[in-house]
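B., you asked whether I could sanity-check this one before it goes into the benchmark set. Here's the sequence:
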Amino acid sequence: MSNNEERMMTLYHGTTVARAQQIASRQEFSNQDSYFTSPAHRDLAEFFARRSASRHPAEGGPALVLVQLPEDEFNRLWKTLRLLRLTGFSEGDRPDLRGRNQWVLEAGGVIALNHAIEEWEWERVN
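And here's what the prediction gave me:
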């Protein structure tokens, strides 16, 4: 990797088609706590997309929002500003979620994340 190439971080957010379209077209997440997974845990994002779609059947089914941001900006939100944290699921959660992790972005970090994101996409979950 040359000095001019930035390392990028990809995050997935599970939601409904209507919401994913809105997020991608506006290129912003709402100013509220937001939940993400890494590509290695795409299945977890899909789980939450399906759950959201089941709660809001008129919103077109499950979808994922995929965003890419520079790794340095991700680390700034996580390590420096402490607005992003990796959290696990506990005994109060479904058994199949225990031992898994998700990234939780506090509402106070949403504006910074929105500005840091370089690529916004969404896709339907089958």
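One thing to flag: The first strand starts at residue 8 and ends at 16. Otherwise nothing jumped out at me.
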